[in-house]
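hey can u check if this looks right to u? its 122 residues, i copy pasted from the old doc so theres a chance i mangled smth
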Amino acid sequence: QVQLVESGGGSVQAGDSLRLSCAASGRTNSNYVMGWFRQAPGKEREFGAAIGRIGGITRYADSVKGRFTISRDNAKNTVYLQMNSLRPEDTAVYYCAAARGLYVEASGYDYWGQGTQVTVSS
C-alpha cells in the first residue's frame, strides 16, 4: 500500500506560479512511477505529467508542456509539480498518483491522493 498526500494548492492570479507537493508513505516511493492528474468541474480527470522511478524520464501533456515541471526527491518520498505561467484553464483539483509503469491513462495508476484545489483567476 502507498498513501499519498498532496499539498500546495491555492488561489492565484493568471501568470503566477505554484508548487504542489505529494508526500508518499507506505511502500518505498522509488518503486513507483509518479504522476499528476487534474480534474476540472464537469470534466474527466486528465493526465498532466509523470516521472520515472529515478526521475530520468518525464512526460507531459501538451496543455502543460513548457509551463509545468515534475520532479521527485526519493530520499524525502516526495514528488513535486512546479507550475508556472498559470492560466484560468488550469483551474482544477490536482491529484498525485502512483503506478508501476509510465502511463498517461488514469486507469494505469494504482494509488491516488485526495487532491488539492488550484484556482487561477484572470
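Residues 30 and 53 are 5 Å apart (CA to CA).
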